[in-house]
Amino acid sequence: MTQASNSKRIDGEALAGQRLARVAGQVATLVDAHALTPGLAVVLVGSDPASQIYVRNKHRQTVAAGMHSYLHQLPDTTSQAQLLALIAELNADPCVHGILVQLPLPARISPAAVLAAIDPDKDVDGFHEVNIGRLWRGDDGPVPCTPMACRLLLHHVLGENLSGLEAVVLGRSNIVGKPLANLLLREDCTVTLAHSKTRDLPALCARADILVAAVGRPEMVTAEWVKPGATVIDVGINRIHDDAATKPRLVGDVAYDDVSRVAAAITPVPGGVGPMTIACLLDNTVAAACRQHGLTVPDADQTQAPTDDARRHYCA
Ligand SMILES: Nc1nc(=O)c2c([nH]1)NC[C@@H]1CN(c3ccc(C(=O)N[C@@H](CCC(=O)O)C(=O)O)cc3)C=[N+]21
C-alpha cells in the first residue's frame, strides 16, 4: 500500500522563520534610526477556540519581532456599536499602525460594516473595500496575508517567473480565493477560480501546474485530481475530532500522503501556509507604519542581521 513519496515538502515554518528574522531586522532599523516601533492591534470578539490560537500566535510573533502588540479580547456579548467604538479609538491612536479584526465575527455583527470602519491605511488584512479596489487595479496597498503567503511559497518552489502556468484556485472566498486569483493573474498565470458549482472538478484540477485548495473540506483533493509534477498549496485547516477525549487533529483540504505520490511539491498542514500567513501580517504592519510616517521600508539586506540568539527568540 505505502508508496514512497516523490514530492518535496514545502517547509512553511522554516520560511516563515526567515521572514520573521527579516522583519525583526527592519523593526530594529526603524527603532534605531527613526524611534518608530510599529504597533499592531488585534481584536477578537468571542471565545472561538481556533481564533484564540491564531490570535495568540499573532501576538507572540509580533512581540518577538520587536513590535508593540495590542490585544483586545472582547466578550461574546459585544455589540456592533461597541466594536465600532473600539475601532474608532484604534484608528485615532498614533501607536497603532495596523488593525486586524479576527474573522469570523459573531452573527449579530456585520463584517462588512466593521471592515469598512477600519482606516484603510491601517488595514493590514487588506480587506477594506478601498484596498480591494487598489489590489484589483494593481495599485500599491496591503495585500491579504494568506494569498501573499501562497504566492511566496510558490515563488520559493518555482522561482520568480510563473508566467504562462495554469493555476486552479479552489474556493472563491474574499479572504483567500478571490485575492489569490488576482495575485496569480498579475504574474501572468492562466487562472481558473473553481467552486462548489464547477463541473467535473477533478478533471479541471488535473490540468493545473499550480493547484491551491482553500475550501475547508478535509482531504477533498486526492491524487487523481493532481497532474504529475504539479505544485500543490493547501490552505485548508480542518480540525478532526476522532473522539471526545483526544485533542482534535489538523488536516488540510488535500490528502497529503496520497497527493505526495504525484505532486512535485506540496505544503503540509500544519506547518505550511499558516505560519507564512503570520509572517506576511508582520510585513504588512511594518509597511503600514512606514507609510504612515512617510518612510520607505528599510532594505532587508541592509538591516542588521539578527544574532543566532535573537533568531532563536524570534522563531520560538
Ligand atoms: N481578520 C483576519 N485575518 C486573518 O488573517 C485571519 C482571520 N481573520 N481569521 C482566520 C484566518 C486563519 N488564519 C490563520 C493564521 C495562522 C494560522 C497558523 O499559524 N496555523 C498553524 C497551526 C495553528 C493551529 O494549531 O491551528 C499551521 O498551519 O501550522 C492558521 C490560520 C488567519 N486568518
TrEMBL record:
Its EC number(s): 1.5.1.5, 3.5.4.9
The Tetrahydrofolate dehydrogenase/cyclohydrolase catalytic domain covers which part of the protein? 10-125
Q: Which residues does NADP(+) bind?
A: 171-173, 237
Task: Give the signal peptide, or none.
Answer: none
Question: What keywords tag this UniProt record?
Answer: Amino-acid biosynthesis, Histidine biosynthesis, Hydrolase, Methionine biosynthesis, Multifunctional enzyme, NADP, One-carbon metabolism, Oxidoreductase, Purine biosynthesis
Q: Is Oxidoreductase included in the keywords of this UniProt record?
A: yes
Pathway the protein contributes to: One-carbon metabolism; tetrahydrofolate interconversion
Q: Which InterPro entries match?
A: Aminoacid_DH-like_N_sf, NAD(P)-bd_dom_sf, THF_DH/CycHdrlase, THF_DH/CycHdrlase_cat_dom, THF_DH/CycHdrlase_CS, THF_DH/CycHdrlase_NAD-bd_dom
What Pfam families is this protein classified in?
A: THF_DHG_CYH, THF_DHG_CYH_C
Q: In what residue span(s) does the Tetrahydrofolate dehydrogenase/cyclohydrolase NAD(P)-binding domain sit?
A: 144-292
Q: Per the record, what are the reactions this protein catalyses?
A: (6R)-5,10-methylene-5,6,7,8-tetrahydrofolate + NADP(+) = (6R)-5,10-methenyltetrahydrofolate + NADPH; (6R)-5,10-methenyltetrahydrofolate + H2O = (6R)-10-formyltetrahydrofolate + H(+)
Enumerate the transmembrane spans. none
Q: How does it assemble?
A: Homodimer.
HAMAP family the UniProt entry points to:
THF_DHG_CYH
- Matching PANTHER family: C-1-TETRAHYDROFOLATE SYNTHASE, CYTOPLASMIC, C-1-TETRAHYDROFOLATE SYNTHASE, CYTOPLASMIC-RELATED
The entry's family comment says:
Belongs to the tetrahydrofolate dehydrogenase/cyclohydrolase family.
- Role, per record: Catalyzes the oxidation of 5,10-methylenetetrahydrofolate to 5,10-methenyltetrahydrofolate and then the hydrolysis of 5,10-methenyltetrahydrofolate to 10-formyltetrahydrofolate.
Q: What is this protein called?
A: Bifunctional protein FolD
